[in-house]
Amino acid sequence: MSIVITVTCGHLGRAAVEAVLDRSTDPAEVIAGARDLAKIIDHAARGVHTAVIDYDDPTTITPVYMFVLISGTALANRDRQHTEEIAAVAKAGAARIIYTSGLKADDTALSTAAMHLPTEDACVPAGCRSRSCAAAGTARTTAATSSPPFARPVPLSSTGDGVVASASRRNLAEIIAVVVTTEEHQGKT
């Protein structure tokens, strides 16, 4: 069984690799992906395979069992990039796709969550069992996308009128690790 985790040179991808390894996953089963392998040499030092994975080049996808798609940050190209990656992953024979989506992407007025819906929709025809690891976002993301704190008593959130349900990157990485290393979450959002 091989597990590909994308964007492992970034904070969440790097933390996800660590969290998967912390759950006693054999490092030889994990493939850390990034556009620049020099940025993820530390993963290789732990026995993790590394591979070039470029969202602008779906041919960089190789056959895998499980594919963790960390949401890209190139907003103007993200829908196309993710759709092409998902199609390539399905063609390569992946059984499961895990995507870091936005909380209630299909039922929110919050644009930062709703923008994940095209990727979630692309997972359906791919024929893979998919799971969206939806979270309200990290405290950093919430702060970056909300009004200045003095302008609103509570930052905008897909939690309605409640308090912001933020999580640390480490928390989100642990969620990814649980979904990746257990079977009970297959096909759920």
TrEMBL record:
Domain of life: Bacteria
InterPro entries cross-referenced by the UniProt entry: NAD(P)-bd_dom_sf (IPR036291), NmrA-type_oxidoreductase (IPR052718)
Gene3D superfamilies in UniProt: NAD(P)-binding Rossmann-like Domain (3.40.50.720), UDP-galactose 4-epimerase, domain 1 (3.90.25.10)
Transmembrane parts of this sequence: none
SUPFAM superfamilies associated with the record: NAD(P)-binding Rossmann-fold domains
Protein name: NAD(P)H dehydrogenase (Quinone)
Protein species of origin: Nocardia fluminea
Upper lineage: Bacteria, Bacillati, Actinomycetota, Actinomycetes, Mycobacteriales
